[in-house]
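Trying the structure run again after the queue cleared.
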Amino acid sequence: MVVYRLLLPAKAIEWKNAIVEGLFYSIVNFGLCSPLLVLIDLWRVEHPVYAALLLPIVMLIAPIGWPILLVRLLRWKWLVRRLQLPFPTGWDFFFHQKNECFVLLRLRNGDRIGGFFGAGSYAGSFPNHGDIYVRNVYKVTEEGVFLDPVPLSLGFWIRKSEYSVIEFFEVPPPAG
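Done. Tokens:
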């Protein structure tokens, strides 16, 4: 449960349901590891060392490995086209893709601020989605046209409550 939440945005653990979830995932783990459990049972007398080495795989390594495998499967484009991904918000889905893009935010006071969202930028995830740090700030006209980068800027951070709309633009291909 915790490993999955480290890899993908997910709702916070509700401790009243954690025991039931933990029990469910333990049953799934033992079901998936049942061939190893049979092997452990067969080897416990003849090869006790091997059997003892397989037990930590079932008890420790597999429960960590299943969420990692699931996240890798969810990044497989063939599968992604056929499934609804388990992201709690569209915000989390978009930023999980880690696409570089230009962002234009319309502030609640009517002003606009823009920048390049790439290396060094960050977007919060569920349940704290909406806050965004954009490393590269650009000058923007009143119509929302990007001009030059702001020299010596270290970026901008803005809360979800400070803007009403955020637009994303593809990075144009290099000229030539």
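The mean pLDDT is 83. Worth checking whether this holds up in the mutant runs.
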